[in-house]
Amino acid sequence: MTGPRPVVLSGPSGAGKSTLLKKLLKDYENVFGFSVSRDCLTSVASPDYYLCWQAVNPCSILLQHPLVLLIQHTSTSRLIQLGEFKAAIQAVQAQNQICILDVDMQGVKNIKKTDLNPIYISVQPPSIDVLEKRLRDRQTETEDSLQKRLHAARVDMELSKEPGLFDLVIVNNDLEEAYSELKSVLADEIQKAQGSKKS
Ligand SMILES: Nc1ncnc2c1ncn2[C@@H]1O[C@H](COP(=O)(O)OP(=O)(O)OP(=O)(O)O)[C@@H](O)[C@H]1O
């Protein structure tokens, strides 16, 4: 498949993925096909394995099994084959855009079983204390959901250390430094997407 490689963006809730993504989307218009986030996934029965799609057509995708995905729209859901999921990502590539997949650790491991060949990036907070402060300041969590996110974050922070799992682990302490690291690792793909648009 020609076209820029997709990008897997993972990391604990509150680590700063959306903040970094927004900067990319603002600075590089038309370079990114669509973004994928886990946060629109609220009503799926088994939230363990999923990819969640926030695109032109917001819906979520539950990666229940390496070969079967559940796409959940606001009111309807349907199962699709991995092939259809891959085709959707490849359609973005075919437009010479970088497809961003914002997935949890299980999503990362499931995508590793495919031949999509993305760049794997983990965004991590400098510490659990800083993460807690950011999540509290964001004012999006109840005490219960905050504690769940902090628990999941501790697990994610440990798992992200697994050698070879990610091409790059960005510790998002200073936002501009983290953004600069992100841009560096994406430089070749951004250039491909921009170059192909000029020709
Ligand atoms: N480097 C930083 N320094 C200080 N605050 C930051 C930094 N990066 C992000 N934040 C703030 O931390 C909060 C969480 O960031 P953000 O919403 O981007 O996280 P996220 O990883 O996308 O979370 P989720 O997965 O829940 O969407 C936001 O309020 C954001 O403004």
UniProtKB/TrEMBL annotation:
One of its GO terms (molecular function) is ATP binding. It holds the Pfam family Guanylate_kin. Keywords: Kinase, Transferase. It comes from the Eukaryota. GO terms for cellular component: cytosol; photoreceptor inner segment. One of its GO terms (biological process) is dGDP biosynthetic process. PROSITE patterns: GUANYLATE_KINASE_2 (PS50052). Signal peptide: none annotated. Residues 4-187 form the Guanylate kinase-like domain. Belongs to the guanylate kinase family. PANTHER family: GUANYLATE KINASE (PTHR23117:SF13), GUANYLATE KINASE-RELATED (PTHR23117). This is Guanylate kinase 1.
